[in-house]
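Researcher: Please predict.
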Amino acid sequence: MDYANRTTTPSTWLPLRLGRAIWRQGARTPRCPDTPRLDGKLAVVTGGNAGIGLEISRGLAKRGAEVIIAARGASTAAEACDQIARETGSSIRYLPLDLSNLDSVVTATENLLALVRDRAVDILVANAGIWPQDYAASAQGHEIAFAVNILGHHVLVRRLLDRGLLRDGRVVILTGDIYIRARECTSDFAYQGSRGGGLAYSRSKLGSLWFAGELQRRHPALQVYVVHPGVVASGLGGGASSGFGAFMRRTMLIDAKAGAQTPLWCATQPNLVRGAYYHNTMGRIELPQQDPAADAQKASTLWARLEELSTPFV
């Protein structure tokens, strides 16, 4: 069955879920078609200067979109912009953005408004994310994975909506199927033991699914898609240089270019289901009732908390 018509109701049993995500994922990950063209479209990619984000930026530019890379690393972003512009001939610019500091998100949206004037963003890819190795707090005092992966993107989207920069475009939000480890997503998660960072990341990815669903429900003019890009050899979770990490990279993981294909699919292809969860190996996910991502009450509660924390910055 081709990817466009593939739907799956996955297991909620952790070993089976994660095993199915990795098994033969290189062969099962779709390749995004080169069409339709995106000439005249404006795209913003958070974390678009490295890893999957860089390949998403490159893929959008190759299809003719004008791309703005919103990222923290100025030197890597400048290098990415120069490289992609040379390869594609498309316009690509850098917007400084540190999602861990909401003051930076405020400044970034004001700079974006000045940069694009009255144009709306046609494609927003919320790609940037962090898998912390040790506990850290954001500039506003929130657990860092929550702050970067969820809250920073929430404030960015809210400000773009309120300023007319995001009207009826596509919003592609990256998650990870590892969310199945979690049942909660809160701003005050306290780490316990060496695996606290991994669980914080899992919680934030559950929050990404809840955030995407609520965004679609509350703003039906948008086209919101949430994406598991694959289990990618990015070093995001650490351990890439260990013997086990090297083995995983060689045998089971996909590279950043392959990981960009499902996000690009959701950013460019017609006839997708709004608000749906798309997975690189399983297609469109139909969540079973017992899946934590299907908890509408917790999704609504998270949105309310995000609104509360965002109030001084929107």
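Model: Confidence is low (pLDDT under 50) at residues 239-244.
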